[in-house]
Structures are given as C-alpha cells and as structure tokens.
C-alpha cells in the first residue's frame, strides 16, 4: 500500500499531534460552559424542587435524565452543578497558583537558606497524603464547599511550588537572563520580562492537567459527604446520593458520573494538546 | 585599570583557576588563549560576576568589584559566545538595547529610545531589523545587537567570550572589522577569549596563554612568535602565517 493511500483526512488533521485532542477538549469545555448557561434559556424545574410522586423515575419527556430519590429533576441538578463543580475546581486551582507561583519564584531566585527553608516547609506539607490533609482542614472548619476548596488547595500547593521553582531555576540559567542582569535590569523586570514568559507555557499545560485532578479530588470529598452539603447540587454529591439506589435507578449515577468523566477528559485533552503543541513549537516562538 | 590578583575557582574540588593574576590597562586589547577546558571562559565569567571566585580579588581603578557593585559592573560588560542565546526571544533589538539604558539610567528617559536606535544604527542594525527578534536574525546580526547592548552600558572594559567561534568565515571577518572600528572609536579596553590565535593578531595588543588553570605566558602580540617559550605557546605561534 502506498503512502499516499494512508493519507486519510483524519490523519491529515493530526490525530497523533494532539491538535485534535486540544480541539475536542476545547469543544467539551465550551459545551460545559453552554450547559452552565442553559438554565437562562431552558424552562427547567428548580434543582431543589422535590416531587415525591416522581421518586426514582426513569428518563422520560418530563424528566429527560430521570428523577432522583426525592423526585428532583436530575438534568436540572446536573446543569445547576456545572458552576459549582467546575467553579470550585477553578477557584481551588487559582488559590493553589496564588500560593505556589510566588513561593516557587521567590525560593528559586533567593536561593541559599531562603530556598532551603521554603522548600523544607513545602516538603513538610507534602509529607501528608493529599486527602488526609484536606480531611484535617475540613475536620477543623466543618464540612462545606469552602472548607473542601481550602483543604485541597492547602494540600496541593507544595507540589506546584516545587514545580514552579524547578521551572524558574531552569529559566533563570539561560544566557539572555544573565545578560539582562548584566545589563542592569531590575530583579522584577528580569522576572516579569525574561523568566515568566518562559515559565508560563509549560505551566499552562500543568494547570490544565492539574485542574482535572483537583476536580476529581473535590468530587471525591463531596462523594464522601464532606464537601458540598445538600441540597446544593454538585456532581460528587449527586454520585453519593445515587449510591444506595444504584440497582433501582442507575440513571442517578450515570449522569453525574459521565459529567465528571467528560470534564476531567476535557481538561486532560486540553493539557495534553497544549503540551504537544508547545513541544513542537519553534524555539522562541511561544 | 582592571586588576586581578590571586583568583581561584574550583568546581566540585577540581581547580579550574589557580592564583590567576592579570591586569588590563585602559584602551588595551588583550587576547586570552588556551586549550578547551583550560578555564578561559570561567575566568571571563568571574570577571563579570557570572561565576563567584573561591578566592582572590578583582579591582577596577582600585575599587573591588563584587556581584553587588552595580556601577562597577556596568563598567565591565560581556559578550556571550552564542549571541543568539544571549538575546531575549521576547524582545526586539531596540528594546534589548533600551533595557540596558533603562537599567543603568543612562541619559534622560525620554531620549533612551533614540539613543538605542543610534547605537544600533552605528553597528549596522538599521530600519525594520531593529524591531525583529533574535529567531529571525542571523548569528552575525545577533552578534551586533549583543555588542550594541554591551556598548549601551558605556563600559570601560568589554569581555568577549569566543566572539567568532559561532560565526561563519565571512561574518568572522566583518566582526573583526567591526570590533576594530569600535575600539578605534571608543578606546574601549577588551579581553578577547579565543581558542584560535590567528584572529587575535588583528585585534590584540597582548596575548595571555592560559593552561592548567594558570596564566603561563604574557607576550605582546607583535612579538608572540619570537618570544613564546612554553610548548603550548609555541604550538599557537606555529599556527600564525608569517606571510600575513
């Protein structure tokens, strides 16, 4: 078979290159965004409205994804959970970055004892298993969405800080960074104009991949009943509510399970796609 | 005048520079030659503060030069071996030169862009090229921009680390001409690190030969072939074409 016959359109789009993955991930993210905005356009029942007559009802025209054990519309709750689940993951990731970015940059650039003390502090936090530390924070603050965000961020930031430090150390050894310093550029300018532009592209990949992990961790906490509290809809909490009724009403489990899977897949595809794109970039063209 | 006394540098217990002494007078061009790994680049990097010596001192007009001494550092500038890597991929040529003018607050802030443009024009980096980033420029063009950045600091001494090694022959010739022109115009002292003696013949007043972590010979360039005694120096002298 000649090489020409292998050039089917899908391959020419670059399935192996991650570009299709990136596009698919972005489409999935856009779909979640549209889903989150859909209550403004669709006439859906309120997510907390109970109808005991429709308890565990299977999918029907009235309830497209069925009803839960309290007769609440699963589709309505699934959509209402979009800003809660994804929003919590994004807020947590932002909190992680707010701590880890300056922590890693300062440790890398200060070096010496400052670096040693900052990294040992991070190591101490990293010594605790992520969920155990999150559970401790939640135990101290009481079960809530805010507590789970703080708990996950508190457990997650050290690994990110280590990563940022490694990226900054590598970036700051480039000749042009030394040249900027010799050229009298201030420390702040060197960081903002010469180091951060090198660090941000690989960091964007990591952020995307880690957001997926954070989403899973938050969903796991809600699944355990110590994250988002009823009646607020959240995918992990919906899975927890569906657990006792798995045999009678599998639709209760499938919808939030699929939502979590697709959201994680979206972030992973975007992260992987970005990584492959950046790996193939021409030097200095990012 | 730049004076170096008893400079020592070790990497993981390995002595790269051992009790190195040297001096460079104002306006003098000194060539530093030696085998690969002899410590030439390490010495050059110590002089500009890119490496911290284990002992010894560096003085500029009698004032000790340390990593924190800002104005003293301004007076010693450095040209990297690979000019492309030494220019920020995020800045155009004009911004690169202006960064140095801003960094050392040289001249009124309002005139620095024009001053950066003038320096680049003088070195043949003109028009749209002043706004291009290094990835779209040749090695020779990057070399000129790196030189412009170093000259913008108004240094007293320019240290050039293998300035010709990454350039093709034609660009090497034009770079040598450019460096001679810069030296004539500015009376800048230069320390040119090289593994090849031939190009230094057209530039240097004096040659230092570095071997086994020490400076083993210090000979005026015109007399190099006649006065070289160390086998390594003799070997370098034999590379010189007497007809040229």
UniProtKB/TrEMBL annotation, chain A:
Note the topology in the membrane: Multi-pass membrane protein
Localization terms from the record: Cell membrane
Could you tell me the keywords of this UniProt record? Cell membrane, Membrane, Peptide transport, Protein transport, Transmembrane, Transmembrane helix, Transport
This entry's Gene Ontology molecular function terms read: dipeptide transmembrane transporter activity
Q: What organism, scientifically named, is this protein from? A: Maritimibacter fusiformis
Instruction: State the Gene Ontology BP annotations.
Output: protein transport
Mention any one GO cellular component term assigned to this protein in its UniProt record.
plasma membrane
Q: Which InterPro entries does the record cross-reference, listed alphabetically?
A: BP-dependent_transpt_permease, MetI-like, MetI-like_sf
* UniProt name for this protein: ABC transporter permease subunit
Instruction: Tell me where it mainly resides.
Output: membrane
Fetch the CDD domains from UniProt. TM_PBP2
Residues in ABC transmembrane type-1 domain copies:
82-271
**Matching Pfam families, A to Z?**
BPD_transp_1
Q: Which residues form a coiled coil?
A: none
UniProtKB/TrEMBL annotation, chain B:
Supply the source organism's classification: Bacteria, Pseudomonadati, Pseudomonadota, Alphaproteobacteria, Rhodobacterales
PROSITE patterns the UniProt entry points to: ABC_TRANSPORTER_1, ABC_TRANSPORTER_2
Domain of life where this protein originates: Bacteria
Q: What is this protein called?
A: ATP-binding cassette domain-containing protein
Q: What Pfam families does UniProt report for this protein, alphabetically?
A: ABC_tran (PF00005)
SMART domains per the UniProt record, alphabetical:
AAA (SM00382)
Recorded family membership: Belongs to the ABC transporter superfamily.
Output the GO biological process annotations, alphabetical, semicolon-separated. Answer: transmembrane transport
UniProt source species: Maritimibacter fusiformis
Annotated ranges, domain ABC transporter: 2-237
Q: Keywords, A to Z?
A: ATP-binding, Nucleotide-binding, Transport
- What terms describe the molecular function in GO for this protein? ATP binding; ATP hydrolysis activity
């Amino acid at each position: 078979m000649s090489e020409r016959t292998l050039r089917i359109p899908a391959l020419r789009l670059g399935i192996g290159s991650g570009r299709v993955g990136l596009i698919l991930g972005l489409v999935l993210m856009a779909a979640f965004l549209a889903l989150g905005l859909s209550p403004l356009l669709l006439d859906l029942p309120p997510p907390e409205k109970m109808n005991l007559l429709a308890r565990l009802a299977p999918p029907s025209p009235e309830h497209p994804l069925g009803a839960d054990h309290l007769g609440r519309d699963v589709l309505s709750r699934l959509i209402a959970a979009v800003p809660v689940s994804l929003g919590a993951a994004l807020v947590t990731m932002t909190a992680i970055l707010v701590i880890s970015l300056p922590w890693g940059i300062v440790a890398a650039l200060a070096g010496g004892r400052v670096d040693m003390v900052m990294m040992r502090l991070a190591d101490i936090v990293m010594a605790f298993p992520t969920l155990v530390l999150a559970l401790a924070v939640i135990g101290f603050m009481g079960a809530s969405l805010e507590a789970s965000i703080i708990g996950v961020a508190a457990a997650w930031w050290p690994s990110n800080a280590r990563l940022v430090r490694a990226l900054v150390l590598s970036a700051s050894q480039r000749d042009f960074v030394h040249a900027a310093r010799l050229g009298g550029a201030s420390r702040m300018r060197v960081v903002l104009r010469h180091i951060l532009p090198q660090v941000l592209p690989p960091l964007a990949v990591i952020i995307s991949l880690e957001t997926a992990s954070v989403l899973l961790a938050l969903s796991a906490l809600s699944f355990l009943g110590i994250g988002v509290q009823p009646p607020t809809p959240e995918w992990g909490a919906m899975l927890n509510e569906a657990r006792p009724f798995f045999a009678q009403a599998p639709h209760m489990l499938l919808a939030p399970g699929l939502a979590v899977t697709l959201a994680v897949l979206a972030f992973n595809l975007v992260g992987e796609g970005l990584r492959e794109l950046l790996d193939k970039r021409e030097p200095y063209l990012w | 005048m730049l004076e170096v006394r008893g400079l020592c540098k070790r990497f993981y217990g390995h002595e790269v520079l051992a009790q190195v002494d040297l001096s460079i007078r104002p306006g003098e061009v000194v060539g530093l030659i030696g085998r690969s790994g002899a410590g030439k680049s390490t010495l050059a990097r110590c002089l500009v503060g890119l490496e911290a010596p284990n002992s010894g001192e560096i003085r500029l007009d009698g004032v000790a030069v340390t990593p924190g001494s800002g104005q003293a550092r301004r007076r010693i500038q450095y040209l990297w071996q690979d000019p492309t890597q030494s220019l920020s991929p995020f800045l155009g040529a004009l911004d690169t030169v202006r960064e140095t003018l801003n960094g050392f607050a040289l001249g009124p802030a309002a005139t620095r862009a024009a001053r950066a443009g003038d320096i680049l024009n003088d070195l043949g980096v003109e028009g749209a090229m002043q706004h291009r980033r290094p990835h779209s420029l040749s090695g020779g063009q990057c070399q000129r921009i790196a030189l412009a950045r170093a000259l913008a600091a108004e240094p007293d001494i320019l240290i050039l680390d293998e300035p010709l090694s990454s350039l093709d022959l034609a660009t090497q010739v034009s770079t040598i001409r450019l460096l001679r022109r810069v030296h004539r115009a500015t009376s800048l002292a230069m320390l040119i690190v090289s593994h090849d003696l031939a190009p230094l013949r057209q530039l240097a007043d004096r040659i230092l030969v570095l071997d086994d972590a020490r400076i083993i010979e210090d000979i005026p360039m015109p007399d190099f072939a006649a006065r070289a005694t160390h086998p390594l120096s003799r070997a370098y002298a034999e590379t010189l074409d007497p007809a040229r």
